[in-house]
């Protein structure tokens, strides 16, 4: 596979890659490093699984994958005590392994390096370069809304920037909510003599309730280890406006998970409703937008797919007593 083909594969189902010229140089390395960081703060859901899919693609292209279990970041963001976060981090790590990342994946706890002198020196340097306004703005979609924000909310993005240097990353992967922080990193790391990573951003998934963001704190998610019964219940209750393609959670799941992994989606229907139908991506969008496919039929197709798609996760969690 040549570099252009690799770039095309990397760009699939992303919101943006910043920037392509830098990515071309990264792809010339023998084993470049790609990372993403996750706050251990709850269930691992479809939003996380979307980034894991991209990590698996990068892994197949020869990248070393590092996953930061950002325990101190979770603490700074008010996600629990250090002890509570440690338990969640271990559970999260099992979820990521269950999603199919290979054994070369490196899981790194933030607390394992974020107290070292070299790390804190870089945090202090960046703190002198970053305005309070810029730091707070970078956290708009990451931190919980607080009318009286804590100092922690401006330390957070500076630490995340230094994480990229500490982990020696060539690619930083994250959802679009991470964009402002990653742009902060691209602007400032070079000023302290560190490598500037390529940033890849994944579109945010809408919550099952139609909210702009799927989140474990909002309860509008499907967890990767949800039971068959729970998946069925959540999908049946989900927001799925008739004929609407934009901002429709069921359409987003099809585009993000179904079609990157298989050519068609099987939708089972009673004969009186037209019988079973198998649709590729273009056919699904056309049939649904024209009103030829009922929302409940679409939900049933997505439900059946997710139950099968996450079967290996449920099996892994059961076998490992997680």
From TrEMBL:
Keywords (A to Z) from UniProt = Aminoacyl-tRNA synthetase, ATP-binding, Cytoplasm, Ligase, Nucleotide-binding, Protein biosynthesis
What Gene Ontology cellular-component terms does the record carry? cytoplasm
Main location, first listed in the record: cytoplasm
The UniProt annotation puts motif 'KMSKS' region at 213-217
In Gene Ontology terms, what is a biological process of this protein? tyrosyl-tRNA aminoacylation
> Per UniProt, where does ATP bind?
216
Question: Which catalytic reaction applies to this protein?
Answer: tRNA(Tyr) + L-tyrosine + ATP = L-tyrosyl-tRNA(Tyr) + AMP + diphosphate + H(+)
**UniProt binding sites for L-tyrosine:** 35, 156, 160, 163, 178
Q: What class of enzyme is it?
A: ligase
Name the residue ranges of motif: 'HIGH' region.
Answer: 40-48
Q: Taxonomically, which superkingdom?
A: Archaea
* Cellular localization per UniProt: Cytoplasm
Q: Which InterPro entries does the UniProt record give?
A: aa-tRNA-synth_I_CS, aa-tRNA-synth_Ic, Rossmann-like_a/b/a_fold, Tyr-tRNA-ligase, Tyr-tRNA-ligase_3, Tyr-tRNA-ligase_arc/euk-type, Tyr-tRNA_synthase
Instruction: Name the Gene Ontology molecular function terms of this record.
Output: ATP binding; tyrosine-tRNA ligase activity
Pfam families, per database record: tRNA-synt_1b
- Under Enzyme Commission nomenclature, its number is 6.1.1.1
Report the family membership: Belongs to the class-I aminoacyl-tRNA synthetase family. TyrS type 3 subfamily.
In terms of PANTHER family, this protein maps to: TYROSINE--TRNA LIGASE, CYTOPLASMIC, TYROSINE-TRNA LIGASE
Quaternary state and partners of this protein? Homodimer.
Q: What task does this protein carry out?
A: Catalyzes the attachment of tyrosine to tRNA(Tyr) in a two-step reaction: tyrosine is first activated by ATP to form Tyr-AMP and then transferred to the acceptor end of tRNA(Tyr).
Q: What is this protein called?
A: Tyrosine--tRNA ligase
From which source organism is this entry? Methanobrevibacter oralis
Q: What gene does this protein come from?
A: tyrS
């Amino acid at each position: 596979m040549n570099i252009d083909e690799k770039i095309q594969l990397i760009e699939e189902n992303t919101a943006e890659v910043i920037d392509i010229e830098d990515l071309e140089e990264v792809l010339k390395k023998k084993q470049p490093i790609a990372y993403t960081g996750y706050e251990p703060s709850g269930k691992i859901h479809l939003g996380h699984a979307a980034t894991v899919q991209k990590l698996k693609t990068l892994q197949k292209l020869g990248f070393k994958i590092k996953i930061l279990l950002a325990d101190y970041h979770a603490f700074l963001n008010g996600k629990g005590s250090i002890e509570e976060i440690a338990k969640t981090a271990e559970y999260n790590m099992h979820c990521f392994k269950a999603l199919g990342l290979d054994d070369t994946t490196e899981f790194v706890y933030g607390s394992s390096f974020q107290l070292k002198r070299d790390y804190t020196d870089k945090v202090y340097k960046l703190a002198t370069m970053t305005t309070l306004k810029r730091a707070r703005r970078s956290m708009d979609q990451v931190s919980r809304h607080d009318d009286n924000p804590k100092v922690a909310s401006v330390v957070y993005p500076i630490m995340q920037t230094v994480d990229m240097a500490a982990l020696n990353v060539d690619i930083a992967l994250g959802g679009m909510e991470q964009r402002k922080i990653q742009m902060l990193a691209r602007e400032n790391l070079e000023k302290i003599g560190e490598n500037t990573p390529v940033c890849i951003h994944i579109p945010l998934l809408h919550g099952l309730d139609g909210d702009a963001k799927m989140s474990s704190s909002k309860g509008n998610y499907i967890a990767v280890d949800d039971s068959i019964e729970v998946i069925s219940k959540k999908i049946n209750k989900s927001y799925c406006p008739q004929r609407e393609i934009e901002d429709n959670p069921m359409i987003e799941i099809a585009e993000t998970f179904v079609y990157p992994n298989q050519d068609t989606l099987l939708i089972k229907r009673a004969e009186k409703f037209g019988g079973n139908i198998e649709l590729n991506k273009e056919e699904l969008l056309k049939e649904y937008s024209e009103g030829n496919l009922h929302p409940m039929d679409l939900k049933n197709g997505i439900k059946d797919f997710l139950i099968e798609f996450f079967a290996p996760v449920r099996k892994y969690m059961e076998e490992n007593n997680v």
